[in-house]
What we know:
The complex is a heterodimer of chains A (325) and B (260). Chain A has twelve helices and 14 strands.
Amino acid sequence: MSNISVNSLVKKFGAVTAVDGISFSVEPGEVFGFLGPNGAGKSTTISILCTLLAPTSGRASVGGFDCVRDADAVRRSIGIIFQDPTLDNGLTAFENLLFHAYLYGLDRRAARKRIDDALSLVGLDGRKNELVRKFSGGMKRRLEIARGILNYPKVLFMDEPTIGLDPQTRNLIWEFIRELKKNTGVTVFMTTHYLEEAEFCDRIAIIDLGKIIASGTPSELKAGLQGDTLKLSAADPKGLESEIREKFGMDSKINDGGITLTVKRGDEILPALIRGLSTKITAVSMTTPTLNDVFLSLTGKNIREEGSDPYGPMRSYARKNHGGH
Amino acid sequence: MANIAHEMKAIYVISYRELRKFIREKSRIMGTMARPILWLFVVGGGMSKLVRPVSGISYIQFIFPGMIGMTILFASIFSAISIVWDREFGFLKEILVAPISRFSVVVGKAMAGTSISMLQVLILLIFVPVLGIRINAPQFLLLILSSGMLAFSLTCFGILVASRMSSYEGFNIIMNFLVMPMFFLSGAMYPVKLMPPALREIAYANPLTYGVDGLKNILLASASGTPMGPEYPAIVDFAVVAGFLVVTAVLANLSFRRAA
């Protein structure tokens, strides 16, 4: 059974439709990425899945429980790392975690044990009794991850877990996520607008203007694109071009000093080409498409283009004034 | 049963958090204690020179129950308004996604405000002998009970207000148009009986009036019937505060549930 299942989900804030009839499912143990520009509807979807917002229509279930009718059971089975920090700066790291443990009904002894384990997992065991106020942004994020896994969730939600962090901390966070997945088999649902991060996911869905416009594994999505670009240099580009057409039935373009051709599985075709061609090749190179190419081809815009969503400001306005928090 | 134990744990930890932070911030304790002590000795001490004692009660003794009321009022409302801080700093989300009922959140917050208020009341009660007021053990217990009820109801009142505030900017309005008038029109500084009629009507509608009057019934019983003493029978004060407590507790729950 799927750990997350979403069916024709719609969320409207007044006249603005933030989530526009999306459907998807996430299998146990998957790292599922929700990729889209700011204001695409990612955080709204997470809020519905975490039972913080009620959908306008459609169905959502997490861990087998309905997000509206069985909200309490959903809450018990999830851990969340919100986009904005939600730690109490006036408490120590330990106190923040103890607060969380008690909210989730753990008893004192179990809480202490899990807190120690979680803190050492994120490398904060030495900072246990320090006030969170003194922590750096990266340390706070790590503490939030420790808190998110304290109740052994079935599904861990992460809303832009690495936003605003330096690359080193970002890599560290990703190491935690992979480690966590390996050790606990937890399902991870994350949103991001960093394409490099989406590459780490088992599966991704691309969301824009409230709609899912594509989904699949990162390589599937890229394979659906024009394909890999191969560049072969040769002293005789013309001869090379005609030999490729005759032997492999593929069209290539001649440019100075060589040819380029676009193929679906460049990594498999390239060795075959080199083995099968008699024309002397002096250099080869291959470029695989990035998720940004995928995004660009689907939406006609770059994912991090500022102001690419005309409703962005309206959406956040609507969220602020109708979302309740 | 396990569920009730879980909710109790949540209530405990929500109130423990606030109390822990209150005790940690020494400057906050000093700040909140400075107000009643300044009022008591600067205003009360000064006015005692102008106002003749009535049936053995001096002005400084007269305002002491009012100072307890003021301490409870400010501490309770401040504590409840922390909901707005929690919302601004995101911590409220951590509470709202937890598998606990909204009811427990409200009770936890109300208990937090009550304990912080009571801690300050206990500090203030050190001045009972200094001011020459005599109370026995049952009176002391009654004092704790009345203060506790008043603190709980005022915190619920604060939660009701806080769940309707979308940002901290409304705080000054709350202070100037709600908290300060509630204090001045409660009989804390001046007998309600002697107020101009229009203000007197407002004071009669002010629940804090009955809270303060209840404290006067315990601390200034000897001056009953004079302007310095309590105005109502203790049972009336008790009934009004108890009613206020029930109403604010219900409304705080409804209002918080809607806002969250």
